């Protein structure tokens, strides 16, 4: 279903969603935070292949978009916990659907592009 801004421009909700969460690392971080809140180094270990610099940048982007929140738990030692906001948590069904499709796709043998 398309929404229109004016007569000449249509907005597709799917395209707009992909603009927000469609990047490889954004979706990966949201996926891990959908399981539970995590500290920075936990995310770094789980999101294989991401650099700490990129993780920091993506977390900032997700916080600016209102999908992730950062909570200072302790000052000594400094403990920071990242978690999904209420808006970020609404993405869980999408993550679950992607997981189910991926499991089916991987076991079906159709993944010949790898």
UniProtKB/TrEMBL annotation:
Keyword Transcription regulation carried by entry: yes
Pfam families associated with the record: HxlR
Record has tRNA processing as a keyword: no
Key words, A-Z: DNA-binding, Transcription, Transcription regulation
GO function term, MF aspect, one: DNA binding
Domain HTH hxlR-type per the UniProt entry, residue ranges: 12-110
Protein name (database record): Transcriptional regulator
Organism name: Cuniculiplasma divulgatum
Native organism taxonomy: Archaea, Methanobacteriati, Thermoplasmatota, Thermoplasmata, Thermoplasmatales
């Amino acid at each position: 279903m398309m929404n229109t801004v004016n007569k000449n421009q249509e907005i597709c909700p799917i395209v707009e969603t992909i603009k927000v969460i469609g990047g490889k690392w954004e979706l990966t971080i949201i996926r891990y935070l959908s399981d539970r809140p995590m500290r920075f180094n936990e995310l770094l270990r789980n999101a294989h292949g991401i650099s700490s610099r990129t993780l920091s940048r993506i977390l900032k982007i997700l916080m600016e978009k209102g999908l992730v929140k950062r909570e200072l738990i302790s000052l000594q030692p400094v403990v920071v916990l990242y978690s999904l906001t209420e808006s970020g948590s609404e993405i869980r069904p999408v993550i679950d659907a992607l997981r189910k499709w991926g499991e089916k796709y991987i076991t079906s043998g159709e993944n010949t592009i790898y």
